[in-house]
Protein 1
Amino acid sequence: MRNQHKIWVRDRKSEAYSNALKHLFRLTNKRSSILANGQAVLNQGHQKEWFDDYISTIEALSAISIYSRHEFIENIASHAVNLRTEMEKIISGNKLDESPLFDVSKFIELAEELEDEVTLAAVRDLRLTNGSS
């Protein structure tokens, strides 16, 4: 029974890391266009889908915090706070109904940093869970 529980937790943990990375990849790669100055922008047609991926990322990060080891959660949590802060700036600084485009460059940079942290934690955490060194 104990072994079954370990397998169940490992599967939930693996699923949480996978979901977080899937939605982070979508966040960091979705752009409506890139302006001449390199600024990544989203138009209104892509904003809902992009915000849905953001919410799904936060949900997956919450699952990681439930199932993963504490030493891996700290760095992820720190980067997640930075991402949430930038999202608050995006939301408060734009009238989403009125603005056809908004800048997501800084947000993408922070999401890429979080993506790196989640990838590193997943590799280390799942390796320990599976008993490898």
Note: Residues 19-25+40-129 form one domain.
Protein 2
Amino acid sequence: MVRKAWLFIFTFFVCSASQAQPKDFVRKGLLRASATVSQGLFFRNKVQPLYVHMNLDYQLERRVSFRCDINMLVAFQDDRKIFQHHHQALAGIAYHFSSKRFDPYMAVQPGVSLTKLNKTLLGEELPPGDEGLEVNPLISASGGFNYYIGNFMHVAVNSRFNFGSHKMTNENLPLNEFQFSVGLGWNLRFRQNNPV
């Protein structure tokens, strides 16, 4: 049964890829979405969180898209769980350097981080008043690429640097972090045969 499923998936990709395609796949009106698992690394204390990373990206012009990203904290790689909650929402403009089905991009996105610290922060008790949920501004610089498989799927590779801080009573906790994700996504066209 599993072998038949893999055969079906392989046949689907071969048939999709063999259809006549325009010279450049990325055009105005292309909508991309993906959901992956993202690995993070905080610069200050080397804590490694895992996120569910979702993004939605709409191609405004051939080289410019509007991109939204959401990261939801699900776990940590080790026992140093500094956050109970650490979710991020980002939106901004991406610039694409696409050629045929290969679509590298760079993006700058402002956003917010919704964070709540654990009661003990790396072995130390939190001062009173620092246990609450905080909304913190973020700025993110990201880059990566999409590779289109057929008409409806793509491989998505994304890396990003987030910069911000969580406000505390005595000092601010830096939220500076590197994130990396790889996964599959879906794409749809909302404008047909309209090269830009």
Note: The radius of gyration is 20 Å.
